[in-house]
């Protein structure tokens, strides 16, 4: 290498070197306040950090190590009302935080007062110890702690214990939804709720009689503390379930309470300690304290009370409106509500709906519930009445049919009940479990086809006519399966699973499913009308009044499906237009072929016999816009949005008895109102695009990465 080249290389290397600064002095200046061996944690905590923490015996990763410099609050110290209120509110926020999915060891158990009750007393608590007459004379502030704060902490533990009992009754996914692992500590199961309620009432009466002993500033917080105690009493009584009507009144009292959020008191972190995790029987590393801000916690609590009240109202509703379609619509709107209901509410809905293995809402046998669901489509109550009253001999020709139908109902019952059970899970679990459920419905449909064939043969042998009878049972299975398939696709939007470049694909498949569903509804409706007009007797169909209602409800379903299908078709074409103008772009380097990703997206439908699975080539063919101009396509979209808006405006005024929305009418009205506004806004958007697109002077120009101009 020549000298000149070496000089150039040296100069280049010097230019690439960073300029360094000696920070030794600043470094030691920052360390002077740290003790020997003390660790400094960054806000992030990666896998590499955790390995290093294990090597250096960081307490952050070892439950067995206690932090020597942690100050633990003396629970025997006296507190003024402002601090007591702050502690009560944060203890309450810890309860709500636990229901949000955190561990008890991160929330409720971090309270030093609760640690005292559970660890030192080993959960052995004598209620009489907390009545003032059993204590020595002391200051008013110490009495406040003993008579008010300690009883509230006992009530907080008891509330968690009741929640754990409720969670155990529901079908949920522990750790994924909520952890009710108490780490071997007693949650006061041995103490009756009535004893705790009496203790809280004594606390309120004590505050009433002793409020004059506090100064004027303290009395303001004493009133708020009383309100908190009354709220806790009302909620514990609502959880008692001794009387549903009384529980509803208690919840309404909480919901209408104006001073529920008045002042949160003085919040002090010293009342909460993570050191409890070193004393619990757990193999998990220490976890940080996770308690929601108190305003958020109280707002969540109010939502819990509102949802709880709705569930209890369902359980005492008039039996005449507790039809399968009404209840199913209630579940559909309840599962999709925003903000989403917490785990306690969803478990309560499960527990009340499946009151025991054989009854629905303690009113209907489960097999009767399934029969009613089928009768809502084909008005087949007469058929089921004959089955229930059948006394035919084994040689009777009907016996084989009725026996097959009874076996079918037994098989269908757990599958149909799973629809309601799955709707009580979180959204991710709903979609996953619905994908499994459609396979069960597929197998059930195959079994139902055999029963329908037997029923057809029996009817034809009686009438001696070549009438095409409906496939009642297989048609019902297909009806339910299509509803679940459509819901699975819409759940993808709720879970935000779809990328922008996939939207046209999803709406295209939804358009296809809704067309199949609409065709199926038309077929059911035509069968009902045909057999309604027949003069000869049949065991398949019921009386005139029942058939009229079924026909009206079917027309509503047809109108609703038609509106949804118009919207999905419109959005499918709208996103094709956006793709055409490169406003939505596919990934530059896809990880897999598009046909493979298509199959993955619709994998739950891939192995179903009905409806037929559409392949990716069909989508490409249908998405070809070469035969139609953008202007014509925009006009079609405007027309579709206008038609959909008209349909949903008619739907909005439908009698709730016909729409089967008696249990969720307000939610239904809000949903339809939003859809109408959506149709109007998108119609206007398409008109604006069309006007700009057709302007003779000023064309709409879009600049893409390849610098091409699209008009």
TrEMBL record:
<dbReference type="GO" id="GO:0031417">
    <property type="term" value="C:NatC complex"/>
</dbReference>
<comment type="similarity">
    <text>Belongs to the MAK10 family.</text>
</comment>
<dbReference type="Pfam" id="PF04112">
    <property type="entry name" value="Mak10"/>
</dbReference>
<feature type="domain" description="NAA35-like TPR repeats">
    <location>
        <begin position="325"/>
        <end position="689"/>
    </location>
</feature>
<dbReference type="InterPro" id="IPR057982">
    <property type="entry name" value="TPR_NAA35"/>
</dbReference>
<keyword id="KW-0963">Cytoplasm</keyword>
<feature type="domain" description="NAA35-like N-terminal">
    <location>
        <begin position="37"/>
        <end position="197"/>
    </location>
</feature>
<dbReference type="InterPro" id="IPR057983">
    <property type="entry name" value="NAA35-like_N"/>
</dbReference>
<dbReference type="InterPro" id="IPR007244">
    <property type="entry name" value="Naa35_N"/>
</dbReference>
<protein>
    <recommendedName>
        <fullName>Mak10 subunit, NatC N(Alpha)-terminal acetyltransferase</fullName>
    </recommendedName>
</protein>
<dbReference type="Pfam" id="PF25789">
    <property type="entry name" value="TPR_NAA35"/>
</dbReference>
């Amino acid at each position: 290498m020549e000298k000149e080249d070496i000089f150039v290389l040296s100069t280049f290397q010097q230019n690439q070197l960073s300029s360094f600064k000696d920070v030794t002095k600043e470094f030691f200046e920052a360390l002077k306040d740290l003790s020997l061996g003390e660790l400094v944690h960054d806000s992030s905590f990666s896998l590499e950090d955790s390995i290093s923490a294990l090597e250096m015996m960081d307490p952050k990763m070892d439950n067995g190590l206690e932090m020597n410099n942690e100050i633990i609050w003396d629970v025997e110290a006296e507190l003024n009302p402002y601090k007591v209120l702050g502690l009560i509110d944060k203890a309450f926020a810890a309860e709500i935080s636990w229901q949000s999915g955190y561990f008890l060891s991160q929330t409720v158990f971090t309270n030093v007062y609760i640690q005292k009750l559970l660890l030192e007393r080993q959960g052995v608590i004598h209620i009489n110890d907390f009545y003032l007459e059993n204590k020595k004379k002391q200051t008013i502030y110490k009495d406040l702690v003993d008579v008010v704060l300690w009883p509230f902490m006992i009530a907080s533990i008891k509330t968690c214990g009741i929640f754990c009992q409720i969670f155990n009754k529901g079908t949920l996914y522990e750790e994924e939804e909520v952890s009710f692992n108490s780490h071997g500590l007693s949650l006061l199961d041995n103490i009756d709720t009535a004893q705790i309620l009496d203790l809280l009432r004594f606390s309120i009466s004590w505050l009433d009689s002793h409020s004059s002993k506090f100064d004027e500033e303290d009395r303001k917080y004493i009133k708020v503390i009383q309100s908190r105690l009354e709220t806790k009493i009302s909620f514990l009584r609502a959880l008692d379930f001794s009387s549903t009507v009384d529980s509803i009144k208690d919840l309404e009292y909480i919901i209408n309470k104006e001073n529920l959020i008045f002042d949160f008191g003085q919040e002090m972190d010293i009342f909460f300690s993570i050191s409890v995790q070193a004393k619990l029987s757990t193999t998990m590393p220490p976890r940080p304290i996770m308690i929601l801000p108190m305003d958020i916690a109280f707002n969540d609590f109010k939502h819990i009370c509102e949802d709880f009240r709705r569930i209890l109202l369902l359980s005492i509703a008039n039996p005449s409106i507790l039809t399968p379609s009404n209840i199913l619509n209630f579940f559909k709107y309840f599962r999709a509500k925003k903000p989403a209901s917490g785990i306690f509410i969803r478990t309560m809905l499960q527990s009340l709906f499946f009151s025991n293995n054989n009854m629905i809402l303690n009113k209907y046998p489960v097999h009767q519930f399934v029969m009613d669901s089928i009768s809502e489509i084909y008005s087949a109550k007469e058929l089921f009445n004959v089955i229930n009253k059948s006394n035919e001999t084994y040689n009777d020709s009907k016996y084989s049919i009725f026996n097959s139908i009874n076996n079918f109902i037994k098989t269908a019952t757990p599958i149909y009940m799973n629809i309601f059970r799955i709707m009580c899970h979180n959204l991710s679990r709903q979609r996953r479990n619905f994908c499994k459920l459609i396979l069960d419905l597929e197998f059930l449909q195959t079994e139902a086809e055999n029963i329908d064939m037997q029923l057809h043969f029996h009817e034809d042998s009686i009438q001696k006519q070549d009438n095409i009878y409906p496939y009642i049972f297989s048609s019902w299975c297909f009806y339910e399966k299509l509803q679940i398939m459509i819901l699975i696709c819409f759940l993808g939007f709720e879970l935000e699973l779809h990328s922008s470049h996939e939207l046209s694909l999803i709406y295209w498949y939804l358009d296809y499913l809704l067309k199949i569903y609409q065709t199926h509804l038309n077929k059911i409706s035509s069968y009902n009308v045909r057999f309604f007009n027949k003069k000869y007797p049949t065991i398949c169909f019921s009386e005139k009044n029942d058939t009229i209602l079924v026909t009206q409800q079917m027309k509503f379903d047809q109108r609703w499906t038609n509106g949804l299908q118009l919207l999905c078709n419109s959005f499918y074409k709208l996103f094709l237009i956006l793709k055409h103008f490169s406003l939505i772009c596919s990934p530059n380097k896809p990880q897999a072929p598009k046909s493979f990703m298509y199959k993955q997206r619709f994998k739950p439908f891939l192995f179903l016999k009905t409806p037929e699975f559409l392949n990716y080539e069909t989508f490409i063919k249908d998405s070809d816009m070469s035969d139609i101009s953008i202007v014509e396509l925009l006009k079609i979209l405007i027309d579709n949005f206008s038609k959909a808006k008209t349909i949903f405006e008619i739907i909005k005024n439908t009698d709730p008895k016909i729409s089967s929305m008696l249990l969720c009418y307000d939610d239904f009205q809000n949903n339809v109102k939003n859809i109408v506004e959506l149709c109007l806004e998108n119609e206007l958007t398409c008109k604006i695009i069309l006007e700009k697109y057709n302007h003779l002077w000023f064309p709409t120009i879009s600049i893409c990465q390849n610098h091409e101009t699209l008009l």
